[in-house]
Write a structure and sequence with these properties.
The structure is a single chain. It is built from ten helices and no strands. About 75% of the residues lie in helices and about 0% in strands. The mean pLDDT is about 80. By secondary structure, it is an all-alpha fold. The relative contact order is 0.21.
Amino acid sequence: MSDGVLTPAQSVLGAIQGIEVANSSITSPQIIGASCGILILLFVIQPLGTSKLASGFAPIVIIWLLFNAAFGIYNLVIFDHSVLKAFSPYFAGEYLVRNGTDGWKSLGGILLVFTGVEAMFADLGAFSMRAIQFSWLCFAFPCLLLAYVGQAAYISINPDAWTNPFFNSVPPGMLYPSLVIAILAAIVASQAMITSTFQ
């Protein structure tokens, strides 16, 4: 139940925060207000049924995942491909030993990955196990892996970008399209989580 409340709020808020990257004069109360408005709308339309809305969900998620993959590849090529060393357990252990408590604290950002995966699996109940395995291993996982590795490549050169890694690492000219698709994807994930939790 708590995931059904926390995850939609965090997903929508995270997507709406991209507006700050586009326009720094936008204030936190405006971002929170817009996020609350979207969440209230999602709860209001819930009783009307989601079957008509669901036909638009798959293309949004596919486009969002493709954006993530493309941005990740771009950032790896342009900024720092050496972040691929992070896949070696040796470097992960060395990082934690070298940074001590701060290294462990830096892993706190992984929480968002878990909540995002939970939201995704909440939406997968209508599919067979084989379809889920295939789509995850062959499409969603590689796209998300490229996204996170690309963000790490960008942050390794631009350390201040950690505050909003997705939107700060977007290639030139793609901020507004990525903002729109991120908000739509957050709405899709939130709608799936709300449906699975409250119906």
